[in-house]
């Protein structure tokens, strides 16, 4: 029997704001002292009043527009109740019936292992984007549980997709594109390691030739692209064999957890219905009203999105994988852009920054954080352009820049690498060359043009490759013909 998986994702992304979603406690993911960024509001004390964070709404609006969603001029907050020690108020403030944004779509490319695009312009629908606040963090240690509420009340976006994905590769490629978009619009730092972007993935199977969506398994709390991929692959296989043994799909929706260390899922519960959360309108927060003008202005000010940027680099003549590298790494992009602006040559800029610089960084076991500054790279380009060093010698200089962190001028002078471009100095060398290569001069005069090459070779050897080859040619021609 052939089955087709149907996959949908829920993505939680932490918004990059100074303060929390409904109070002025700091939203600082890097704070490692527990329970310092808390106040009566985010601790859910009775009698406190939440106030909506305007920046969080603005950033979520931008992200909604990037997702091609309709931003709803009127939305409102609801209380979602559940009891767990990481949730001091006993309910999460979320948006249920009237989310901030609805009905969008994201285009993404499927990328093969070698970095080439195997399928471009795939589409995944977005059901909704809503705002909510995050819970605290629990640490289980030696039979005890420690509660840290620094994260409690920090702003979150929940993005829900349509069940448009068919494979774990598609799910990962889509999630990666979403992450690029979060960063590009400045909505979230989306640092997976810090848990700023987390996934729940739903998967169900249906028989080929049927349209009916069967009950699904929802995999909770996937914290990396790797976990997303492996969990979906595992659950698909498990659902297939379950279908084979029971003769049908799941009887009802289930919720499973992904055990990263063991590489398998574990059934947590039969999925609760919305009823179980006892959603009701949040009485302490007025409806969220965003005017059409504000939405239009946000749309007009949207920065270029990653896929557009990528296309822009491809149009400049770069390969899709080079374009992807630049889109994914802001530091790399900054260096490339600086060099490109000066040289106006995308191929040359990519050769210097993407091939040579990245290569030397790799060999030296260094990261982009240790890369030469744009100013140093531009100084290196100047030294090639003004003839101080040859393009070939520039590689040695670049490698030394990465090793030592020094600027190109110091390296060129320390290594005595400067090209000899001074006319009188070159004329002197040419005269010496003519005297030392009388035979070659003779054959050149008799019409053997290639003899000139032998003389140039002698000069380059004599000057340890530092004579400016272009100038040597022209001075030599003049001297030999006079
Ligand atoms: Mn949520």
Structural notes for this entry:
By secondary structure, the chain is of the alpha+beta class. The chain has 3 domains: 296 residues, no CATH class; 87 residues, no CATH class; 59 residues, Arc Repressor Mutant, subunit A. The chain is built from 15 helices and 16 strands. The strands form 4 sheets. Strands 2-6-7-10-1-11-12-13-14 form a 9-stranded mixed β-sheet. The structure holds manganese (II) ion (MN). The site of manganese (II) ion (MN) has 3 residues, from loops.
List keywords for this structure.
alpha+beta, Arc Repressor Mutant, subunit A, 3 domains, 15 helices, elongated
List the helices and strands and how they pair.
Blueprint: E1 3-14, H1 54-66, E2 70-71, E3 74-75, E4 78-81, E5 91-94, E6 101-111, E7 117-133, E8 137-141, E9 144-148, E10 155-161, H2 168-184, E11 197-207, E12 217-222, H3 225-246, E13 254-259, E14 264-270, E15 280-281, E16 288-289, H4 292-300, H5 306-315, H6 320-328, H7 330-343, H8 346-363, H9 374-385, H10 391-404, H11 408-414, H12 423-436, H13 438-445, H14 451-462, H15 469-481
Parallel strand pairs: 12-13
Antiparallel strand pairs: 1-10, 1-11, 2-6, 3-16, 4-5, 4-15, 6-7, 7-10, 8-9, 11-12, 13-14
Helix pairs in contact: 2-3, 5-6, 6-7, 7-8, 7-9, 8-10, 9-10, 12-14, 12-15, 13-14, 14-15
The structure holds manganese (II) ion (MN).
Manganese (II) ion binds next to loops.
């Amino acid at each position: 029997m052939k089955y087709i998986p149907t996959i949908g994702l829920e993505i939680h992304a932490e918004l990059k704001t100074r303060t929390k979603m409904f109070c002025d406690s700091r939203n600082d993911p890097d704070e490692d002292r527990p329970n310092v960024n808390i106040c009566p509001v985010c601790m859910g004390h009775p009698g406190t009043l939440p106030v909506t964070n305007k920046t969080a709404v603005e950033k979520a609006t931008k992200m909604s527009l990037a997702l091609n969603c309709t931003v709803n001029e009127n939305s409102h907050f609801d209380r979602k109740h559940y009891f767990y020690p990481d949730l001091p108020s006993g309910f999460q403030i979320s948006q249920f019936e009237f989310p901030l944004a609805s009905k969008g779509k994201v285009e993404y490319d499927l990328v093969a292992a070698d970095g080439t695009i195997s399928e471009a312009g795939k589409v995944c629908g977005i059901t909704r984007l809503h705002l909510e606040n995050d819970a605290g963090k629990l640490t289980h240690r030696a039979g005890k549980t420690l509660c840290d509420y620094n994260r409690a009340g920090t702003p979150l976006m929940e993005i829900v997709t349509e069940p448009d994905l068919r494979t774990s590769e598609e799910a990962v490629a889509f999630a990666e594109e979403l992450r690029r978009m979060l960063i590009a619009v400045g909505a979230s730092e989306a640092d997976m390691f810090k848990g700023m972007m987390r996934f729940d993935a739903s998967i169900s199977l249906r028989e080929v030739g049927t349209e009916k969506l069967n009950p699904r398994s929802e995999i909770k709390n996937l914290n990396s692209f790797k976990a997303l991929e492996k969990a979906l692959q595992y659950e698909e296989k498990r659902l297939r064999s379950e279908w084979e043994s029971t003769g049908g799909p799941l009887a009802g929706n289930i919720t499973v957890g992904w055990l990263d260390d063991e590489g398998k899922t574990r059934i947590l519960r039969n999925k609760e219905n919305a009823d179980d959360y006892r959603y009701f309108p949040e009485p302490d927060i007025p409806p969220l009203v965003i005017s059409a003008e504000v939405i239009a202005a946000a749309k007009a000010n949207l920065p270029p999105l990653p896929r557009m940027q990528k296309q822009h680099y491809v149009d400049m003549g770069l390969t899709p994988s080079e374009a992807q590298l630049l889109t994914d790494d802001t530091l790399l992009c900054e260096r490339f852009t600086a060099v490109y602006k000066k040289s106006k040559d995308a191929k040359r800029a990519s050769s210097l920054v993407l091939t040579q610089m990245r290569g030397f960084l790799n060999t030296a076991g260094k990261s982009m954080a240790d890369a030469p500054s744009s100013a140093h790279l531009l100084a290196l380009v100047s030294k090639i352009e003004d003839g101080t060093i040859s393009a070939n010698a520039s590689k040695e200089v670049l490698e030394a820049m990465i090793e030592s962190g020094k600027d190109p001028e110091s390296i060129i002078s320390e290594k005595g690498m400067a090209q000899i471009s001074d006319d009188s100095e070159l004329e002197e060398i040419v005269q010496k060359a003519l005297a030392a290569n009388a035979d070659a001069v003779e054959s050149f005069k008799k019409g053997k043009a290639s003899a000139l090459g032998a003389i140039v070779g002698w000069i380059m050897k004599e000057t340890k490759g530092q004579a400016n080859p272009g100038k040597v040619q022209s001075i030599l021609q003049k001297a030999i013909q006079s």
